[in-house]
Amino acid sequence: MGGSGRPPGPPALGTPMLRRDAPRQRDSFTGSEGVLAAVADLFFVARIRETARLTGVSVEFARTPEQVEAAVARGPRFALLDLTAGWDYERVLQALAGVPVLGFTTHALARQTQPWHERCARVVTKETLTQELPRLLREGVGA
Q1: What Rg do the C-alpha atoms of the chain give, in angstroms?
Q2: Which neighbouring-strand residues pair with 122?
Q3: Fewer CB within 10 A of the end CB, N or C, for the chain?
Q4: Is residue 5 part of a domain?
Q5: What is the C-alpha separation between 122 and 124, in angstroms, rounded?
């Protein structure tokens, strides 16, 4: 009870509520257990983060080519790469050499992103990524 003698009520509107029983999602990984998500689209960052939490897979997010280079040193199991972010893909894919890459694009940009497809182990549309994300995070690029 607070100083007013009344039990505390629900938190104020807009106050985040934390579930104590929810697994904690790290935004980084160690060793080869995790996935590197090189994603600029905040909608997909949120979707990947929540799906990873639900599947128990650790994900490290990189939002710039520099962050990709730093994350590769930690040995991701594979990388999700947003081919629609407009990055220097030559630099990013060079940094990801030796890491299996699952690239994703849109139907509308498939032709524009085509030069990078052969450097990825697999390329899917954002729609397919959304549908297959839990299995992809658990099983990897070959799923």
Answers
A1: 18
A2: 102
A3: N
A4: no
A5: 7
Residue in the structure block whose two tokens are 């629609």 = 84
Q: Residue 78 sits in a domain of what CATH number?
A: 3.40.50.2300
Question: pLDDT at position 116, please?
Answer: 95
DSSP state of 24: P
8 in a structural domain: no
Task: List 17's β-bridge partners, or say none.
Answer: none
The pair of structure tokens assigned to 20 is: 């104590």
Q: Which of 139, 112, 141, 143 is nearest to 55 (CA)?
A: 139
The token pair that represents 95 in the structure block: 């940094």
In a domain, 3, yes or no: no
Domain count, the chain: 1
Whether 105 is in a domain gets the answer yes
Global pTM value: 0.76
Q: How confident is the model at residue 143 (pLDDT cuts 50, 70, 90)?
A: low
Q: Which domain holds residue 94?
A: 35-139
Contact 72, 96 (CB under 8 A): yes
